[in-house]
Design goal:
mainly beta; Neuraminidase; 5-stranded mixed sheet; elongated
């Protein structure tokens, strides 16, 4: 049967009208609903401090009748309000870094959620520490230092494969800088930070996602373990119970030494900035001393909060290094007997023993 053009036009118009009616009867799409409500981010600051309180305002873009709103921070429900009531987020006690905030809105027999986030810095202004050079010792200029730690009276050092050098862990005569016991690791791995706990030496690798455990006395390898998080291996230290490790970001992780699982983390911040690339670590009198990669300085970090409480500026030491191939400061070893800190750097020709004071 032949259909005339006017009839085709009428049929098409009818289809369009029916489609519009069906769409209207089904209500707004899920995408449309997601635009009903939003946080008023124009009222938020770029960064807050841990002592602040944040007033959060929800914009009702379509003038819907709101029954109540439940608020979540980092997926934990912390408050609810009637209607579009005021909500104030108290940052006291919250982890430094980003706080992910979600509002679950109950309205007209339906629910929808919307999200925002606020960045939290420390409420402490770091103080500048002073130091005195007590002694200066030779250091192997071929050592691309990654880890530096005393085990009893012995200085332990780990290196990466920098400047065509091999990765190894070693026992060092700190007065001469020479290794008297050295263990090479497979050169497909880049050696990183070390720490000694319960007579075991733990070592990380940079990007291989594995670590090694040795007998700290004999240096015999006891175990190879896999990282349980998708992170890089950088620095290591311990508090006598737990191990702490950095991953090249602002995070310092807590590791269970029994199973090598990463159980928690802190984010490292000053009062006004995030500290990325936290590297070699050392536990000194209840604080974590951390090298910041590319900076010739050490941050003194609160291990519970991640707040940088003090800074040790060691740029003057770099000027004393004669090796033209010397790289950044990297190596912190605390001698409990003398209450002094030994510092060096990648391919430095010197190790400095320091007495630190406020």
């Amino acid at each position: 049967m032949r259909i005339h053009k006017p009839l085709i036009t009428i049929l098409l118009a009818s289809i369009i009208i029916l489609s519009a009616l069906n769409a209207a009867s089904c209500g707004d799409s899920q995408h449309d609903k997601e635009n009903y409500f939003s946080f008023d981010d124009s009222t938020l600051k770029t960064m807050y401090q841990a002592t602040d309180k944040v007033d959060l305002t929800l914009i009702n873009n379509k003038n819907k009748t709101i029954d109540s709103i439940a608020y979540f921070v980092n997926d934990k429900r912390i408050s609810s309000v009637k209607g579009n009531g005021k909500f104030t987020l108290d940052l006291n006690g919250k982890k430094l870094g980003y706080q992910n905030v979600k509002a679950l809105v109950y309205y007209e027999g339906d629910t929808i959620s919307t999200k925002t986030r606020v960045e939290v810095a420390s409420g402490i202004v770091p103080k500048l520490l002073n130091y005195t050079v007590v002694n200066t010792y030779d250091h192997d200029i071929n050592a691309f230092t990654e880890g530096f730690e005393f085990y009893n009276d012995t200085l332990m050092e780990s290196t990466g494969s920098g400047n065509d050098c091999e990765s190894y862990v070693a026992k060092i005569d700190y007065k001469t800088g020479k290794a008297y016991k050295k263990v090479l690791i497979d050169q497909k791995h880049f050696g990183e930070g070390i720490t000694v706990l319960n007579n075991k030496l733990y070592e990380l690798t940079w990007q291989s996602k594995i670590g090694f455990i040795y007998d700290a006395n004999t240096m015999k390898q006891l175990k190879i373990f896999n990282f349980d998080k998708n992170v890089e291996g950088w620095g290591m230290t311990n508090d006598g119970k737990n191990i702490y490790q950095s991953d090249g970001t602002e995070k310092i992780w807590t590791m269970d030494p029994e199973n090598q699982k990463l159980t928690d983390f802190i984010n490292v911040y000053t009062n006004d900035s995030k500290i990325k690339s936290v590297n070699e670590l050392e536990w000194i009198n209840g604080k974590i001393y951390g090298n910041i990669w590319t900076k010739d300085a050490i941050a003194v970090i609160n291990p519970q909060t991640g707040a940088v409480e003090a800074v040790l500026d060691l740029t003057a030491l770099k000027a004393k290094i004669k090796n033209p191939k010397a790289d950044v400061l990297n190596g912190i070893a605390y001698n409990k007997k003398t209450n002094t800190i030994f510092v060096t750097g990648k391919n430095w020709d010197k190790t400095f023993e320091l007495k630190v004071s406020e």
